[in-house]
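INTERNAL AUDIT FORM
Audit reference: QA-55
Scope: verify that the stored structure record matches its stored sequence.
Auditor: D.O.
Record contents follow.
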Amino acid sequence: MDRRSHRRLCDGPVIVTVTNPAVALPGATTHEITTSRGVLRYHEAGDGPVLLLLHGSGPGVTGLRNFRGNLPFFAEHFRCLVLEFPGFGVSDDFGGHPMVTALTAVEEFVDTLALRDVAIIGNSMGGGVALSYAAAHPDTVRSLVTIGGIGTNLFSPGPSEGIRLLQEFTDDPNRERLVRWLHSMVYDPALITDDLIEERWAQATEPGTLESARRMYGSSAFAAMIAAMENSDTPPPWATMHKVTAPTLLTWGRDDRVSPLDMALIPMRTIPSAELHVFPQCGHWAMIEQKSAFESAVLAFLRREPVGDVER
């Protein structure tokens, strides 16, 4: 059973600290805050400048599963906050499209904790959310790191292999489809262990989590989203990246089969202060598959002082 303690931020909301052995990570604590739309949960480790970590999407994903291997490293240098997005089985489901509610959740989370001068690492969908947040709140974001998942296909077909496999699983879940999708995420198939498959399967097939996933990746929902974008006067996300003023490090696996490397070309060119780091022998999970190289490159970037036009 969870054990809980409470504290209040001045006259603001109560933050509940949750002790739950199922999600325990040495040196990290788990908290929850109540919002007008439901409970947001997050994990905290370390001291220092704020580093917000935003997870990606896909069957059985959580923030802790995306970043648990990196958290001890970054917690030596930063106050790390791993936010669990609504609808993925840890925070409450806010309803609606998970990417839209994720951005709302980040805004409410940052405001509730009164965070300032924030560095952000966003994996895949989390990178897209981070870019949108940074464009809308330039005075809050100090620097930004993305891991694949942004931009648009220029030379490779879309949807990519990984997205098609994700849709197949979401429409009709079974273990074989889950394993095929997981293998599309990595360069080295040895990373897809039985334990990983089991933990992803258990959460991905939980009814509420699956229903949320279908609002994003179900075939009908995905087709409706594409049609809406094609018929809308609103620019697509990749066309607004020039509004991101924060120094940005784009990280990518050279062998990414979910968001192929050619997707990086538009953000690399249009984000004013962007640089690109490509990891060889690496799929979609750069922070896992090239852990040491990723941590080294990201730490050097985050500790670098802003210069030139982006100095604030």
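Auditor finding: record pair retrieved intact. The two ends are 46 Å apart (CA to CA).
Action required: none
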